[in-house]
From TrEMBL:
InterPro entries: CoA_trans_fam_I, NagB/RpiA_transferase-like. PANTHER family: ACETATE COA-TRANSFERASE YDIF, CHOLESTEROL RING-CLEAVING HYDROLASE IPDB SUBUNIT. Transmembrane segments: none annotated. It comes from Methylobacterium oryzae. This is Glutaconate CoA-transferase.
Length: 244
Protein backbone atom coordinates (compact mmCIF):
# COMPACT_ATOMS: atom_id res chain seq x y z
CA UNK A 1 0.00 0.00 0.00
CA UNK A 2 1.51 3.32 -1.08
CA UNK A 3 1.19 6.69 0.61
CA UNK A 4 -1.74 7.68 -1.62
CA UNK A 5 -5.21 6.44 -0.78
CA UNK A 6 -5.87 4.31 -3.84
CA UNK A 7 -9.32 3.16 -4.92
CA UNK A 8 -8.42 -0.36 -3.81
CA UNK A 9 -7.36 0.61 -0.31
CA UNK A 10 -10.29 3.04 -0.02
CA UNK A 11 -12.78 0.23 -0.67
CA UNK A 12 -11.10 -2.30 1.64
CA UNK A 13 -10.68 0.20 4.49
CA UNK A 14 -14.23 1.51 4.31
CA UNK A 15 -15.72 -1.98 4.11
CA UNK A 16 -13.77 -2.79 7.28
CA UNK A 17 -15.24 0.25 8.99
CA UNK A 18 -18.70 -1.33 8.82
CA UNK A 19 -17.54 -4.09 11.19
CA UNK A 20 -18.76 -3.59 14.78
CA UNK A 21 -17.67 -5.04 18.13
CA UNK A 22 -19.04 -8.40 19.25
CA UNK A 23 -20.97 -8.99 16.03
CA UNK A 24 -21.02 -11.86 13.54
CA UNK A 25 -19.69 -10.85 10.12
CA UNK A 26 -19.71 -12.89 6.90
CA UNK A 27 -17.89 -12.65 3.56
CA UNK A 28 -18.93 -14.75 0.60
CA UNK A 29 -17.91 -16.13 -2.80
CA UNK A 30 -15.83 -13.97 -5.17
CA UNK A 31 -15.36 -11.46 -2.36
CA UNK A 32 -11.64 -10.83 -2.06
CA UNK A 33 -12.09 -7.20 -0.99
CA UNK A 34 -14.51 -7.98 1.89
CA UNK A 35 -12.26 -10.91 2.88
CA UNK A 36 -9.35 -8.47 3.16
CA UNK A 37 -11.59 -6.01 5.01
CA UNK A 38 -12.49 -8.59 7.64
CA UNK A 39 -8.88 -9.65 8.07
CA UNK A 40 -7.88 -5.97 8.27
CA UNK A 41 -10.48 -5.36 10.97
CA UNK A 42 -9.07 -8.28 12.99
CA UNK A 43 -5.63 -6.67 12.89
CA UNK A 44 -6.44 -2.96 13.08
CA UNK A 45 -9.34 -2.58 15.50
CA UNK A 46 -9.19 -3.02 19.28
CA UNK A 47 -12.35 -5.09 19.61
CA UNK A 48 -13.48 -8.67 19.13
CA UNK A 49 -15.93 -9.86 16.50
CA UNK A 50 -16.71 -13.21 14.90
CA UNK A 51 -15.63 -13.57 11.29
CA UNK A 52 -17.24 -16.33 9.20
CA UNK A 53 -16.27 -16.90 5.57
CA UNK A 54 -17.74 -18.92 2.74
CA UNK A 55 -14.87 -21.42 2.95
CA UNK A 56 -16.39 -22.46 6.26
CA UNK A 57 -13.92 -20.80 8.60
CA UNK A 58 -15.03 -19.29 11.89
CA UNK A 59 -12.40 -16.86 13.18
CA UNK A 60 -9.69 -18.60 11.13
CA UNK A 61 -5.96 -18.11 11.44
CA UNK A 62 -4.90 -18.73 7.82
CA UNK A 63 -1.26 -19.43 7.07
CA UNK A 64 -1.49 -17.14 4.02
CA UNK A 65 -3.89 -14.69 2.48
CA UNK A 66 -5.35 -16.43 -0.58
CA UNK A 67 -6.40 -14.76 -3.81
CA UNK A 68 -9.74 -16.61 -3.71
CA UNK A 69 -12.18 -15.83 -0.91
CA UNK A 70 -13.31 -19.48 -1.12
CA UNK A 71 -9.85 -21.00 -0.59
CA UNK A 72 -9.84 -23.76 2.09
CA UNK A 73 -6.87 -22.03 3.74
CA UNK A 74 -9.47 -19.63 5.16
CA UNK A 75 -10.65 -22.45 7.42
CA UNK A 76 -7.23 -23.01 9.01
CA UNK A 77 -7.19 -22.57 12.76
CA UNK A 78 -10.95 -22.09 12.90
CA UNK A 79 -13.00 -22.44 16.07
CA UNK A 80 -15.60 -24.30 14.00
CA UNK A 81 -16.38 -25.22 10.39
CA UNK A 82 -19.65 -24.05 8.84
CA UNK A 83 -21.50 -25.43 5.83
CA UNK A 84 -23.56 -23.23 3.49
CA UNK A 85 -26.79 -24.13 5.23
CA UNK A 86 -25.32 -22.87 8.50
CA UNK A 87 -24.79 -19.37 7.01
CA UNK A 88 -28.36 -19.27 5.77
CA UNK A 89 -29.67 -20.60 9.07
CA UNK A 90 -27.92 -17.83 11.00
CA UNK A 91 -29.42 -15.23 8.67
CA UNK A 92 -32.96 -16.53 8.68
CA UNK A 93 -32.90 -16.75 12.50
CA UNK A 94 -31.83 -13.12 12.68
CA UNK A 95 -28.36 -13.85 14.07
CA UNK A 96 -26.14 -12.65 11.20
CA UNK A 97 -25.21 -9.07 11.98
CA UNK A 98 -23.28 -8.12 8.84
CA UNK A 99 -23.01 -9.77 5.41
CA UNK A 100 -20.78 -8.57 2.61
CA UNK A 101 -22.62 -9.49 -0.60
CA UNK A 102 -21.66 -8.65 -4.18
CA UNK A 103 -23.83 -6.99 -6.82
CA UNK A 104 -23.59 -6.00 -10.48
CA UNK A 105 -26.12 -3.17 -10.14
CA UNK A 106 -27.45 -1.28 -7.13
CA UNK A 107 -30.34 1.19 -7.15
CA UNK A 108 -31.20 4.05 -4.84
CA UNK A 109 -33.41 1.81 -2.70
CA UNK A 110 -30.50 -0.51 -2.00
CA UNK A 111 -31.88 -3.33 -4.15
CA UNK A 112 -29.40 -5.44 -6.13
CA UNK A 113 -29.14 -7.18 -9.49
CA UNK A 114 -26.89 -10.19 -10.01
CA UNK A 115 -29.14 -11.90 -12.56
CA UNK A 116 -28.80 -10.24 -15.96
CA UNK A 117 -27.89 -7.08 -17.82
CA UNK A 118 -30.61 -6.17 -20.30
CA UNK A 119 -33.99 -7.80 -20.73
CA UNK A 120 -34.39 -11.09 -18.85
CA UNK A 121 -35.66 -12.87 -21.97
CA UNK A 122 -32.83 -11.63 -24.20
CA UNK A 123 -30.05 -10.36 -21.93
CA UNK A 124 -26.84 -8.77 -23.09
CA UNK A 125 -25.11 -10.50 -20.18
CA UNK A 126 -26.36 -13.43 -18.12
CA UNK A 127 -25.05 -13.13 -14.55
CA UNK A 128 -24.63 -15.89 -11.92
CA UNK A 129 -27.95 -15.28 -10.17
CA UNK A 130 -29.03 -14.68 -6.61
CA UNK A 131 -27.55 -17.69 -4.86
CA UNK A 132 -27.03 -17.02 -1.19
CA UNK A 133 -27.48 -13.29 -1.64
CA UNK A 134 -31.17 -13.72 -2.40
CA UNK A 135 -31.54 -15.33 1.03
CA UNK A 136 -29.04 -13.28 2.99
CA UNK A 137 -29.75 -9.74 1.79
CA UNK A 138 -33.36 -9.76 3.07
CA UNK A 139 -32.57 -11.60 6.31
CA UNK A 140 -29.20 -10.35 7.58
CA UNK A 141 -29.41 -7.50 10.07
CA UNK A 142 -27.16 -5.44 7.78
CA UNK A 143 -25.77 -6.12 4.31
CA UNK A 144 -23.04 -4.13 2.59
CA UNK A 145 -21.96 -4.30 -1.03
CA UNK A 146 -19.17 -2.76 -3.06
CA UNK A 147 -18.51 -1.79 -6.66
CA UNK A 148 -15.00 -1.46 -8.07
CA UNK A 149 -16.39 0.96 -10.67
CA UNK A 150 -18.38 4.03 -9.69
CA UNK A 151 -20.56 4.76 -12.71
CA UNK A 152 -24.13 5.21 -13.88
CA UNK A 153 -24.13 1.70 -15.31
CA UNK A 154 -23.51 0.13 -11.87
CA UNK A 155 -25.28 2.64 -9.57
CA UNK A 156 -28.55 2.87 -11.46
CA UNK A 157 -31.95 4.50 -11.26
CA UNK A 158 -33.68 1.32 -12.49
CA UNK A 159 -32.31 -2.21 -12.13
CA UNK A 160 -32.42 -4.46 -15.19
CA UNK A 161 -33.61 -7.21 -12.82
CA UNK A 162 -34.39 -7.15 -9.08
CA UNK A 163 -32.54 -10.13 -7.64
CA UNK A 164 -32.68 -9.24 -3.95
CA UNK A 165 -33.93 -6.48 -1.68
CA UNK A 166 -34.53 -5.68 1.92
CA UNK A 167 -31.42 -5.45 4.07
CA UNK A 168 -28.93 -3.20 2.31
CA UNK A 169 -27.11 -0.99 4.79
CA UNK A 170 -24.16 0.37 2.83
CA UNK A 171 -22.36 0.61 -0.51
CA UNK A 172 -18.66 1.36 -1.00
CA UNK A 173 -17.06 2.41 -4.30
CA UNK A 174 -13.60 3.81 -5.11
CA UNK A 175 -14.86 7.35 -4.47
CA UNK A 176 -17.80 7.15 -2.08
CA UNK A 177 -19.49 5.51 0.88
CA UNK A 178 -23.28 5.29 0.97
CA UNK A 179 -25.48 4.23 3.86
CA UNK A 180 -29.22 3.69 3.99
CA UNK A 181 -31.54 6.14 5.72
CA UNK A 182 -35.33 6.24 5.61
CA UNK A 183 -35.47 3.63 2.89
CA UNK A 184 -32.92 5.13 0.48
CA UNK A 185 -29.19 5.21 0.03
CA UNK A 186 -27.65 8.51 1.11
CA UNK A 187 -24.09 9.70 0.77
CA UNK A 188 -22.08 9.30 3.97
CA UNK A 189 -18.69 10.48 2.67
CA UNK A 190 -16.55 10.76 -0.42
CA UNK A 191 -12.90 10.16 -1.30
CA UNK A 192 -10.78 13.22 -0.41
CA UNK A 193 -9.43 13.31 -3.97
CA UNK A 194 -12.95 13.37 -5.43
CA UNK A 195 -15.79 15.85 -4.84
CA UNK A 196 -19.48 15.86 -4.14
CA UNK A 197 -20.16 17.08 -7.70
CA UNK A 198 -18.14 14.19 -9.13
CA UNK A 199 -20.03 11.65 -7.04
CA UNK A 200 -23.37 13.09 -8.19
CA UNK A 201 -22.26 13.13 -11.83
CA UNK A 202 -21.17 9.48 -11.74
CA UNK A 203 -24.21 8.13 -9.86
CA UNK A 204 -27.33 7.07 -11.72
CA UNK A 205 -29.77 7.61 -8.86
CA UNK A 206 -30.54 10.76 -6.90
CA UNK A 207 -29.32 10.86 -3.32
CA UNK A 208 -29.18 13.13 -0.31
CA UNK A 209 -25.77 14.40 0.80
CA UNK A 210 -26.94 16.05 4.01
CA UNK A 211 -24.18 15.68 6.58
CA UNK A 212 -21.75 14.09 4.12
CA UNK A 213 -18.09 15.10 4.10
CA UNK A 214 -14.73 13.84 2.82
CA UNK A 215 -13.96 10.39 4.25
CA UNK A 216 -11.53 10.42 7.20
CA UNK A 217 -8.14 9.12 6.01
CA UNK A 218 -6.91 5.65 6.96
CA UNK A 219 -5.42 5.36 10.42
CA UNK A 220 -1.85 4.13 10.89
CA UNK A 221 -3.31 0.85 12.14
CA UNK A 222 -5.48 0.44 9.03
CA UNK A 223 -2.55 1.22 6.73
CA UNK A 224 -0.24 -1.18 8.55
CA UNK A 225 -2.83 -3.97 8.51
CA UNK A 226 -3.48 -3.70 4.77
CA UNK A 227 0.23 -3.51 4.02
CA UNK A 228 0.77 -6.69 6.03
CA UNK A 229 -2.07 -8.44 4.18
CA UNK A 230 -0.92 -7.33 0.72
CA UNK A 231 2.81 -6.58 1.07
CA UNK A 232 3.61 -7.06 -2.61
CA UNK A 233 0.49 -5.33 -3.90
CA UNK A 234 -0.79 -8.38 -5.77
CA UNK A 235 -4.39 -7.90 -4.62
CA UNK A 236 -4.30 -4.24 -5.57
CA UNK A 237 -2.82 -5.07 -8.99
CA UNK A 238 -5.34 -7.83 -9.59
CA UNK A 239 -8.28 -5.60 -8.62
CA UNK A 240 -7.26 -2.92 -11.14
CA UNK A 241 -9.37 -0.28 -9.42
CA UNK A 242 -9.10 3.32 -10.61
CA UNK A 243 -10.47 6.46 -9.03
CA UNK A 244 -11.42 7.75 -12.48
Amino acid sequence: MTGAWSGFSYIVTNLARFVRPNEITFSGVNSALPMLACLLAKRAYPFAFTYINVAGGVDPNPSKVPISSSDPVLAEGSRAIFANEDFYDLCTRGLMDLCFLGAAQVDGLGRTNVSCIGDWHAPRVRLPGGGGGAVMLPTARRAVTWRTEHSRRTLVETLDFVTAAGGMHGVVTPIAVFTKREGRLVLASWHPEASLDEVRDRTGFAFSADGAAPTPPPTPEERAALTALDPEGRFEADAGIRLR
